Automatic annotation (TrEMBL):
It comes from the Archaea. Zn(2+) binds at C109, C114, C135, C138. It comes from Natranaeroarchaeum sulfidigenes. This is Aspartate carbamoyltransferase regulatory chain. Contains catalytic and regulatory chains. One of its GO terms (biological process) is 'de novo' pyrimidine nucleobase biosynthetic process. GO terms for cellular component: aspartate carbamoyltransferase complex. Residues 103-144 form the Aspartate carbamoyltransferase regulatory subunit C-terminal domain. The gene is pyrI. Keywords: Metal-binding, Pyrimidine biosynthesis, Transferase, Zinc.
Length: 152
């Protein structure tokens, strides 16, 4: 087992999100809805040397897999991330991310009058464009500060 594999597979069962751009680890946790209050076991490596990125973050979450909605939003802030599924300390599956056409849930529409921000049980849905995402319900655009809108 290589050094690299040892580093990513130290959890027993769960998910290791590797090759996250340096400084984005906490945003990854926000996407997963993890704030420490749920008792999740999480370990984070920040600004770890990487051959593919100037510096990378690694997030390891014990006992948790990512939903497709979470993976989709993750791909917007960490397009080069790798998702490693770990079972009994082994990486059993490794996925790269595709840029989705739409992201659902996870992001909240900044428009207070948007139907998705009401009490109505309507999940947010954004169309993914080149440099921005657009709410399919009210056309509000989120461009630069995507991570401020995590938390639907
Ligand atoms: Zn909206």
């Amino acid at each position: 087992m290589s050094d690299h594999e040892l580093r990513v597979s130290k959890i027993r069962n769960g998910t290791v999100i590797d090759h996250v751009p340096g400084g984005q680890a906490l945003n990854v946790l926000a996407i997963l809805g993890i704030d420490g209050t749920g008792g999740e076991q999480v370990s984070i490596g920040m600004n770890v040397p990487s051959d593919r990125l100037p510096a990378k973050d690694i997030v390891k979450v014990e006992g948790r897999e990512l939903s497709q909605n979470e993976v989709d939003v993750l791909s917007l802030i960490a397009p080069d991330a790798t998702i490693n599924i770990v079972s009994e300390y082994d990486v059993v599956d490794k996925r790269r991310l595709d840029r989705p056409e739409y992201v659902k849930g996870v992001l909240a529409c900044p428009n207070r009058n948007c139907i998705t921000t009401d009490d109505e049980p309507v999940d947010s849905k954004f169309e993914v464009l080149d440099d921005e995402v657009r709410c399919v319900y009210c056309d509000t655009i989120i461009r630069d500060n995507l991570t401020e809108h995590i938390g639907n």
